[in-house]
Amino acid sequence: MKHYLSINDIDTLSDWVSAARKLKENPKKFKTLGQDKTICLLFFNNSLRTRLSTQKAAMNLGMEVMVMNFGSEGWALEYGDGTLMNKGTSEHIKEAAMVVSQFCDIVAIRAFASLTDKEKDEAEVVLNGFKKYASVPVVNMESSVGHPLQALADAITLNEQNAKKRPKVVLSWAPHPKALPHAVANSFVQMMKLQDADFVITHPEGYELNTQITAGVTIEHDQKKACEHADFIYVKNWSSYTDYGQIKNEDANWMMTKEKLGKAKFMHCLPVRRNVVVEDAVLDSKQSLVIEQANNRTYAAQIVLKKIVEAL
Ligand code: CP
Q1: CB atoms within 10 A of CB 137
Q2: Ligand 1 touching residue 142 (CB < 6 A)
């Protein structure tokens, strides 16, 4: 495998999940595989889990890790072809990506959606700019439209926790005071489409995700009905996709509660706003899988890096 840009870069999800679970049993088994290899993690946005888990995964494989908060420390990048660069941008993605490639064997990028320009966000200018001009493999650490390392970690968590042949899994929208991107929800939906599960998405009207991604998935606008008999409920806020980046509903009734959760396991990618997205009683209960999801971020990143290093 050259790049890991989307969950669809995985050939057989179940094989990757099994391999990741084996790495979890013995994280240092391949501790010399990445010897003399360097990964460069470039963050255009904040992170806790992605930064530490990807670093840990690389260290488990014996790699050197360089981290840069590009958004606050790097030059403002230009992405357009043939642009007259006489305004705010100082360096073109062409040089930046080629220069970064001189220092590392893999580059990983986090660059969120602007939520102001749908066309530009969907073009994934940062991630695709690195893909186009870097001479080394590129890993997506959450881009405008996808968070495939999170989705792979979620697949590992589901696999570990599931006791049924065909579980019921619900993706529920929840309220949030800030406009958030669609990346986590998109990748979760793409990942669930690769699973044998009764998968339902629930959200208020006006919060439809990209229908090209949700095609074929059951959508239920009654959250309580959607959550009935669920085995897993994954909660996430996203802003409107149709009315791009807008907050159209802050209805607190959509917060996840113990009552709505029933006997299901609770999932969230974190960070999460307590008592806005989900009540304390859920997060503090044994039904919450959020810490195990975060833990599995290491093994998701490690299987991805292992496959890339093996193909170098
Ligand atoms: N879930 C996740 O990607 O967390 P961070 O934003 O802290 O990396």
Answers
A1: 26
A2: yes
Residue ID of nearest Cα to ligand 1 atom 3: 50
**Does residue 154 line the site of ligand 1, with CB under 6 A?**
no
CA gap 9, 3 in Å, rounded? 8
Whose CA is closest to atom 4 on ligand 1?
49
Task: List average pLDDT for each run of 10 residues in the chain, which is 312 residues long.
Answer: 94 98 98 98 98 98 98 96 96 98 98 97 97 98 98 98 96 97 98 97 97 98 98 98 94 97 98 98 98 98 98 97
Q: What is the pTM of this model?
A: 0.98
